[in-house]
Amino acid sequence: MLLWFGFTLGQSRGVPAQYIPSHPPAPSPCQAHWSSTDHSSKMLVLVGLMLYLAPADALTAFPPKFQVGELNGDVVVRCNTSVQQVTWTQNGEPDPMVELVTEGQNLTIIGLDLPATGNYSCWAKTILLDSTYVVVSSTPLPGKEGINVSCQAESYHGSFRCSWTGPHSAVFHARLTRSDGSLGEWVPATGHHGQFSASFVDPSFCPFGEELHPLQLQLEGLSDTSYLNFSIHFFIRDIVRPDPPQKLTVQRQGEQLHLAWAPPASWLLPKSYFTLFYRLQYELPNGTQVDKDVEDAEETWLQVCTRRVRISCQDPYASHAWSPWSPWQDIDGAQQCQLQAH
User: Fold this and answer.
1) Whole-number Å distance between alpha carbons of 337 and 339
2) For 301-333, what is each residue's pLDDT tens digit?
């Protein structure tokens, strides 16, 4: 299976031409330069890798020790022990059906192929000394469709979550090269029926500063027989998708409805800097749904004859991804209004 990753980077955080805030943004506590420089769009792709699927011991977690060899090449596995003479098993079998050469603490696999992959353990009689999972280095398969990796952040806290699809038999872990260049710890990915995901935090991320360098996420995967290794690069600003707005209230005032709401609880403050645009969707008595955009405000007015309403939001400086809709909220008196209309 060929793995392929790519997405187009959006604009940097800056003031859109159609929107000029009435108040300047708050000074940056991170003392980082904030500009509206427009970074050109770039497509980032990942090295495609093939996954061989053959019977072996099923992996349930990323092994602490593994070794990658070339197909049909020789692989030397070393037992990490001071014992000079050891015996070996492959996937628990003392007599593997592969060509092996033993010499002291070393085991040489001659002509690594798919049946020769798996867990190699060295023993001193009945005492387990060490284990190494041996897999084949995957190679690209031209013309094969790949899979997408999707990353999403709910705000500018420096935390985000990535998800992707893969073979059911695979296990993954990943680590982050942070914005300050430091390398994070490996994070195990959760998987279920070929759907994988993992969460990450960049503690060095400054939400008030312009992102000058992309984050790098390295993912490693093991199937029963093969090894996967690929990296993706992205900016937090390009994966931000806010949560839905909260605390939507509707009050009847004369012939109009007054609506008010609050930003998502996960959204950063101050509002003067982390601005949100809002989109209301309301339904008329005849079932027609109408959208209404609200900029730089957290309230608006609607006509009384409205059956129900919901709301979404977006960061105007990011990739223009709207949040999910809030649940529909029914309007009191809408049924009477509908009867009057008839």
Assistant:
1) 5
2) 998 789 999 999 999 987 678 999 999 999 876
**Residue-wise burial string across 125-163, b where 16 or more C-beta atoms lie within 10 A, e elsewhere:** eeeebbbbbbbbbbeeeeeeebbebebebbbbebbbebe
pLDDT at 257 > cutoff 60 = yes
* Contact predicate 105/37, CB 8 Å: no
Contacts of 296 (CB under 8 A, 6+ apart): 19, 21, 22, 275, 277
pLDDT averaged over every residue in the chain: 79
Q: What is the 3-state secondary structure (H, E, C) of 201-223?
A: ECCCCCCCCCCCCCEEEEEEEEC
* Residue 306 β-bridge partners: none
For residue 241, what pLDDT is reported? 94
Burial class (CB in 10 A: 0-12, 13-18, 19+), 47: middle
Site of tokens 């003031």: 15
Which stretches of 11-109 are assigned E, i.e. beta strand?
66-69, 75-78, 87-90, 100-103, 106-109
Residue closest to 26 by CA, chosen among 155, 208, 211, 297: 208
How far is residue 205's CA from residue 330's CA, in Å, rounded to a whole number? 41
CA distance 156 to 205: 8
Question: Distance between CA atoms of 128 and 122, rounded to whole angstroms?
Answer: 6
The dihedral through the CA atoms of 263, 268, 269, 273 has a sign that is negative
Can you spell out the DSSP letters for 153-188? BSSSSSEEEEEEE--TT-EEEEEEE-TTS-BPPPEE
Pairwise CA distance, residues 149 & 251, whole Å: 43
Q: Quick check: pTM over 0.85?
A: no
Locus of tokens 């006509």? 303
What single letter denotes the amino acid at residue 292? K
